[in-house]
Amino acid sequence: MEDGCTEHAKAIKPIDRKSVHQICSGQVVLSLATAVKELLENSIDAGATSIDIKLKDHGAELIEVSDNGCGVEEHNFEGLTLKHHTSKIQDFSDLVSVETFGFRGEALSSLCALSDLVICTCHKSAAVGTRLVFDQNGKIVQKSPFPRQQGTTVTIQQLFYTLPVRHKEFQRNVKKEFGKMVQVLQAYCIISTGVRINCTNQLGQGKRNLVVCSSGSTSNVKENIGAVFGQKQLQSVIPFVQLPPSETVCEEYGLSYADLPQGFYNITGYISRSDHGVGRSSTDRQFFFINQRPCDPAKVSKVVNEVYHMYNRHQYPFVVLNICVNSECVDINVTPDKRQILLQEEKLLLAVLKTSLIAMYSGNVNKLDVNQTLQDAIGNIRNVSSDSFESSIAGLTNAFDKGTLSISKLREAFSIHHKTQSNSQHAKLNKGHIPSPSQKTLQAFFCVSSKDQNGVSQTVPCTSPEKREPLTPNLSQKNISFESDCDSGRVTTTAPDFDGDPSIPEILSNQSSEALTDSPDSPVDNGEVGPPVVLDNPQNMKSEFKEDGSESVSEKGQLYIDGCIPNSKRIKMQDNPVPIVNFTSGKLQADTVDAPINITKRTVPLQFSMSHLAKRIKRLNLQQTEREESEKYRRFRAKINPNENQAAETELRKAISKEMFAKMEIIGQFNLGFIITKLDSDLFIIDQHATDEKYNFEILQQTTVLQGQRLIAPQTLSLTAVNECVLMDNLEIFKKNGFDFIFDENAIVMERVKLISLPTSKNWTFGQQDIDELIFMLSDSPGVMCRPSRVRQMFASRACRKSVMIGTALNAHEMRKLVTHMGEIEHPWNCPHGRPTMRHIACLDMISQD
Q1: So which domain of life are we looking at (predicted)?
Q2: pLDDT greater than 80 at residue 689
């Protein structure tokens, strides 16, 4: 320690200005997209109405941005490319009211440090333009007259050449960088109304290819969308309709519905319809703006996609949303690229978005197209229904006539009819009303039939539990209580009619299951005859006993209910004892129950030794410690459990290499579906069908060349310029997937590529959606062989049918072949459908030998 202190510490010195400039500039300009964005924003801030962007070799060799803006005055030439020199703000407080894209004076200075920068500009007050050449520190090294019209042209050559590692990486991934740049450019083309933005790319000495273009004459965002993505995209979008947040959504985000500010946010834009096939397979066309500034609000994007997936689970929407808010409530000075923005009342914004999107999409679902046949059926129902039902169905008739009907309204109307019909039927039956033949049909639907003691069918209205009549006018609650669950859909039955006396109560046979489990002494209903129950009747009814003893009424008005009523259950008993009724000589005699029983207690001595207990506890603790020590050396800890599939696969990847599968010892086959293998001291179980299916699937993926079906007429794909470039660069991959194209270099953008052949395979058909998916995957991994998801599904189906099935007996050679194949594929851990192929069973060293 002392030796370290005696050493002379290095002196603290400032970094030289050139190194500081390069270090800081490398954090401002990160990619081709950032460089083009900064130059484009400068042109828009200068009031340009026409901006031309020219790239050579996707921007690796040259980037040129030319505009017809106001130009630069001569007295500003020196500070044009110096660090933190700007005309947009004077001090920190000006950040609140800044309305331009750029304001920190970092873009041109950083580009000077990372490339060779030349600016040609002409102000309206100047007679001739000026050409300025800058060094890496932003100093002017050459100044000369240059003829040009009013405006500015900025030329960048050899971007990132001062940072060797970044320059090499940029050249290696230049096409991917180019695709990201175009996506950023599309956002500015959409939101910049009245500005014509034109971008071209030139490969070598070839002709210039148009990349993206917007029409400067447009005055709204919708026309810009059509200019950038074509009219086909416009047909699938609907305007965003803003609504105030609902109480439910406010509660979800923890907002007070009563204290919400009004008019805090104003959201406009367009979004895809929720119909299947209208959306996109990726999020490549989602553009969000705050006060017309392109940004990446992660939470806003998440809410939009989550709501969209509620109505279209398999696709993503096309989104263009501009969020307008007071500039004092926004902080755009968070990151150098200004893509991350902080907002006040962000939860309010999310609540407004969620409520509005749900309202937009929920109005277009759950609708039925009603034909004339169904309308006639509704007319017949109205003819036979009651007056109350006619009033409730009247509103539905108008909806049927229009051709659509909401399911929720239909359900509501029939529930109203159910209640009114039940109540009216119950009243009419009590008055002795005889229904007409036409009404019997509906009554039969809403009523339950039962039989009396003579076998005559009776009709009992099924009323709601709230309106159900009591079982008896004055039922004693001291001895008995009823619990019914008629709402569960079970049928109720009535007690036999005692000599036609209407005052005898109806006995419900279906009681709640709680009556069976409330008391531990109550047995489960298994068909045995339970204890009889006494009901007190206020009217001193009398009845003669029948031979089978099925019913009787005592002289005191007690009704005997036998436990042998069909499908009957126990009736819940209260704490008070119930007298048991016995039949002796035709009279009722009551005995007491739960009589006390004298139990003789016996005392047994128990031997106990404290030392013996201490030794046993010590021995158990020692065994537990040994077990814990041995478990520290376990390689596999995940269990065979569906919830731990991911953890098990991670363990297997870390512990098992592909070479180990050939070294595994085959123990045998288990249950005609699984192979038991042993590697060192570990036992594994392998699903014979899943592992063979994964092997066959990967072989099909690698070797199958889909045959294309020639189209009668070429089909225009309406691809953007970037997607056209991706497609042309990966033609071989598309051909292996069965797609073939022709190219027309003289055609306009989005009409240069035409489809002439589609892959076909028995019942599987493919289309432009699969092409878009392939383009999206290849834009991230150019040149890598990949398949559309539907082609993968087809291969998975084929692999499943040709694989070894569960229940097939295998010999040792066949099992060895399947295990060896697992070491020859890329991902042997699960089958194409996600089922795990192998799991760890146990370690033989961990098994106790006791």
Answers
A1: Eukaryota
A2: yes
What count of other Cβ atoms lies within 10 Å of the Cβ of residue 345? 16
- Vertex 713 angle, CA 711 and 718, to 5°: 95
What number of other Cβ atoms are within 10 A of residue 683's Cβ?
16
Asked if 122 and 129 touch (Cβ cutoff 8 Å), the reply is: yes
Which helix (H) or strand (E) covers residue 558, if one does?
A: strand 558-561
pTM: 0.58
Among the listed residues 39, 298, 305, the one whose alpha carbon sits nearest the alpha carbon of residue 185: 39
**Tokens for 308?**
């969209």
Query: Taking 70 as the threshold, does the pLDDT of residue 243 lie above it?
Result: yes
Q: Which residues pair with 715 in a beta bridge?
A: 755
CA-to-CA distance for 300 and 49, rounded, in angstroms? 31
**Tell me: the pLDDT tens digits for 757-808?**
888 877 777 888 888 888 888 877 777 888 888 888 888 888 998 899 999 9
- pLDDT tens figures, 481-519: 444 443 433 344 444 444 444 444 443 334 434 443 444
Q: Which of 289, 343, 296 has the alpha carbon at shortest distance from 321?
A: 289
Residue with tokens 């060896």: 820
* 671 φ/ψ sector (left φ>0, alpha ψ -120 to 50, else beta): left
DSSP code string of 596-627:
--------------HHHHHHHHHHHHHHHHHH
DSSP classification of residue 58:
G
Residues 6+ apart with CB under 8 A from 810: 669, 675, 688, 804, 818
**Tell me, what DSSP letter sits at residue 215?**
-
- Residues 758 and 786: their CA atoms lie apart, in Å, by 17
Contact 212, 721 (CB under 8 A): yes
295's tokens: 């940004």
What structural domains does the chain harbor?
17-217 (3.30.565.10), 236-362 (3.30.230.10), 367-440 (no CATH), 470-591 (no CATH), 639-850 (3.30.1540.20)
* CA proximity to 74, closest of 42, 122, 119: 122
Report the alpha-carbon distance of residue 584 to residue 678 in Å, rounded. 77
Residue 34 CA to residue 111 CA, distance in Å, equals 10
Supply the pLDDT for residue 542.
43
Q: What is the maximum alpha-carbon separation in the chain?
A: 134
Burial status of residue 549 (CB atoms within 10 A of its CB: 0-12, 13-18, 19 or more) = exposed
For residue 771, CA distances in Å to 232, 282, 355, 750 come to: 16, 12, 34, 14
Q: What is the DSSP letter of 849?
A: -
Q: Which amino acid is at 222?
A: K
